[in-house]
Amino acid sequence: xxxxxxxxxxxxxxxxxxxxxxxxxxxxxxxxxxxxxxxxxxxxxxxxxxxxxxxxxxxxxxxxxxxxxxxxxxxxxxxxxxxxxxxxxxxxxxxxxxxxxxxxxxxxxxxxxx
Length: 114
Hints:
Blueprint: H1 2-24, H2 31-53, H3 59-83, H4 90-113
Helix pairs in contact: 1-2, 1-4, 2-3, 3-4
C-alpha cells in the first residue's frame, strides 16, 4: 500500500510541477489539470492513511503522513485563491512544491526502510 501511495504522489508531483511552472510564468492554470492534481494527491493521501491505520507503526511513515497533510492544507489554500479568482502568490506555490518534494522523499525513505 505504501508503494501505491508513493506512485500516486509521484504522479501528483509531476503534474504539480507543470502547474507550478504555469503559475510562476503567470500563465493560466487549466481547472481540469488543477482538479486532476487534487484528485490524485487525495487518493495518495487516502492510501497512505490506510497504510498507517492498518498497522504502519513506523515513525517515519507517520512523519510522511503528517507532512503530506500539511502539504494538502497548503494545496487547499492555493485552491481557495483559484476559486476566489485571485492571483495565486508565487511564494505559496514554491512553499507547497518544496513541502511536497520533502514529503515524497520522506515517504520514499519509509518505503525503502520497510
